[in-house]
Amino acid sequence: MPICDDGSEFNPDSRDDYKANRGPAELDHLTDDLSRSKCSGSAQVIEMTMGQKVRLTLFVVDANGEAVDLSSASVSAKFYVKDRIGDSALILDKDPAKVAGAGGSVTVSLDPDDTLNLQGIYSAQVVILNASDEILWVTDYYLSIAPTLDNLIATGGGPITVAEVRMMLRDTCPGQNLLLDDFEFGDTQVTYAIVWPVQEFNSLNFPKTNYTPSSFPTKWRFYWLRAACGYLLEMAAAGYMRDHLPYNAGGVAVDDKAKFAQYAQRSTQLLAEWRRFAVAIKLELNIEGGYGSVHSAYGYRNINSY
């Protein structure tokens, strides 16, 4: 009998009804294990403006994006925000004002001072705790904070935003997409595409950098914007390729998913443009580290002036 074989007659990977992570007994909630989830819920996006007095209603969801019933136990919640998941320092540590029951949500009130010096995209979590402060559930979010004109932390307009990415891709309203009659990209997808170029830049060539979406230099925001669009088109190309199935119905030929080649080509162009820029900047930073400051053909100013 092979190792880990419990003697059952079916393959564990084919158990559609297998629910590995059933959650704690206090919540009495069934959820598919994330690795077997048929519709894995991705991180929700919270959008607000810096320094805004706001009340957030945040839904606590399982791996399939379904709300977790919080009425079956006496629970409390915490709302945490970090620049990114791996950082040790918390930017925000708030006690939600209200924990809803069957709706599976918490209400978090933020004062203007809480986000007055924040702009960009941050990692956030709602953590559900029992009376012994044991973790019962965690839901991840992206917190997108747009700058205000009277309080820009950095020059150049601040980090790129979801709205800018949508505008460059002409995906600002459903009416523009006649076939879909909907947005092509969700806010979650756009947010991931904004984060990925920063992660790529940090790991690309030398010197290794440690930027976050809130600290990435705004003098590079145009290329950052192009990279985000490239990642979204790459994502869409994968979807169109997966769903491509031309067929005939009533004598009419339908092939509405035959777009992956065009999307992939445009994605390749945008990402190549971004990577040429990123490599040039890394080379410049590398030379600067050995010989001092040098002129940047992209920044048009001495790089040390930023």
Q: What keyword list fits this structure?
A:
about 300 residues; alpha+beta; Immunoglobulin-like; 2 domains; five-stranded mixed sheet; three-stranded antiparallel sheet; 4 helices; 10 strands; about 25% helix; disordered N terminus; disordered C terminus
How far is the first residue's CA from the last residue's CA?
64 Å
Order of helices and strands: EEEEEEEEHHHEEH
Q: What oligomeric assembly is this protein in? A: single chain
Binned strand content? 15-25%
Shape: globular
As for the number of domains, it is 2
The largest β sheet comes out as:
5 strands, mixed
Helix count, DSSP H or I runs of 4 or more residues: 4
Write a brief caption for the model.
By secondary structure, the protein is of the alpha+beta class. The chain has two domains: 34-146, Immunoglobulin-like (Sandwich), CATH 2.60.40; 162-305, no CATH class.
